[in-house]
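Note to self: user wants both folds in one dump. Writing first protein now.
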Amino acid sequence: MNEERWEKLTYWPLVVASAAFIIAYSWQVIADLRGPLSALMGSVMGITWIIFAADYVICLLIARHKLTWFRTHIFDLLVVLLPFLRPLRLLKALTVVQTRVSKGQALRTRVIWYAGGTVAVLVWVCSLAVLAAERGAPGANIQDFSESLWWSFVTITTVGYGDYYPVTGMGRLVAIFLMAGGIGIVGVVTATTASWIVEKAAAGDDDAETATRGQIRSLAAQISDIVQNLPQPTQGGAETGAGSNAPAAAADVGAGESAKQ
């Protein structure tokens, strides 16, 4: 068993586990479940945690270079440590379908999918988390899901009306995470849009672009290679060239002799 084989086997089960977690968590928080049903939803979320933890440990064990794998899979560790990040695993399913486009366009399309999906997941999960933290707390003004959802939209867009705000420590921690995520997503979308505009503006206008020094050096090197690969004149060719000039030389000599006469 190698990393690629394991990832193919566990891809869709992990996506299903992510969906199961967000459904169970949403049901538990929005309906404010109590008793056996709440315990059932808690069990579902616990099972998803076990699945993600087992996947992380197995991937680490079968990795060829464990330290390199650990450094390049920090997100997988965060998914295990921070349960509300598990629904972000669903974003990978959005980019499974590939289209026949350029690499730059495919990258921008993927970035847009991830940015839009991240916004939706962050708003939804943070709305649930802040409601779970604030509901019933002394002095809290976020008491139902509609209020927490409105607060999440206002916060992630960095508007901050202030009509709803968290008062508990956990609620404020969720707010910090949501604000940081909103700023990051705005930056990514802005950079992607700017890249698209620059590419469209430069399309079909290559003659107006200024050549760089690197391009000039590359062109000079190509010309030098072409010149070096040209066939060199042979001795026979030189003699042929001299022979071809013989009639003209003879004519000049004849003209000189006629002038003497």
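First done. Writing the second protein, which came from a different request thread.
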Amino acid sequence: MNSRERVLARVRRAVGDASDSASSSYAQDVPRDYHEQHGARTAAETADLLAENLAEYRALVHRAQEADLPALIARLLAERDADSVLAPAGLPREWLSGVAARLVEDSPDSTPHELDEVTAVVTGCALAVAETGTLVLDGSPDQGRRRITLIPDHHICVVRVPEQLVSSVPQALPRLDPGRPLTWISGPSATSDIELDRVEGVHGPRTLQVILVE
């Protein structure tokens, strides 16, 4: 028996008789009794875990009340001397009411060069996963096209807590539409060369700031 046959045999054993019945399905026949999260947590503890894991990935985490959000966003942009800010069409405009920088609309006609000239982008998110420190964007109106969060060097992402917060990936998947362009973000873009020298900003923003809004 070669390696291919061994792998297929293991798949057949795992699936059991599901493939032999026209009326059965993989989702129905394979037991899914695994834990959906590691331990029980309150909403506050889940938010703390998300913040801890985001920081582990070198994202910058901030906490705010809804009323304080415009002032916080304006301060974070000013601290990095942002002169232009890209805002998706569905982003609440009151969030940017204190921003002094020029606002840039999310246009399908924008070229990569034009987006590279934008200092920062501010978006919402679809979900945040606490156990993995992951933000999920799905292209909704408050998040815009995928490329606007990959090209500008500074991304500010707003997460509503607890509405957009889940503990684990198994809890996140049923709440996401697989037909949408899902982008999973765990910290700012980074890579390491063969000598393990870390370089940030290679595949996406060099700076990721996450605001947890209660």
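Dump finished. Worth passing along: Residues 36 and 170 are 6 Å apart (CA to CA).
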